[in-house]
From TrEMBL:
InterPro entries: Complex1_LYR_dom, Complex1_LYR_LYRM9. Belongs to the complex I LYR family. LYRM9 subfamily. Residues 9-61 form the Complex 1 LYR protein domain. It comes from Nicotiana attenuata. It comes from the Eukaryota. Pfam families: Complex1_LYR (PF05347). This is Lyr motif-containing protein.
Length: 87
């Protein structure tokens, strides 16, 4: 179970980094660093809370949509992330 959760989290992180590449060049380093810091900060989730990972993934998806919208990137770019976060 833990291995599946870890793969899901890493997949979400990978997709976020792919989305960062769609942002304007001058903003990419900031958002890549932001994504990395959040991935590291939230790598330890409450194992007693069965919803903790799902809530974190949902926040990841929602925040990604917000950033894409901020830079007028088509939100359909986040479809793969949506699949990971909602599965």
């Amino acid at each position: 179970m833990i291995l599946q959760e870890m793969k899901k989290a890493i997949g979400a992180y990978r997709e976020v980094l792919r989305l960062v590449r769609r942002l304007p060049k001058d903003t990419q380093p900031y958002y890549a660093k932001y994504a990395r810091e959040n991935f590291v900060n939230y790598r330890e989730i409450d194992s007693n809370d069965p919803n903790a990972l799902q809530e974190l993934l949902q926040r990841t998806y929602n925040h990604s949509l917000w950033v894409l919208n901020k830079y007028s990137v088509d939100q359909s770019a986040a479809d793969r992330l949506k699949n990971i976060c909602s599965a």
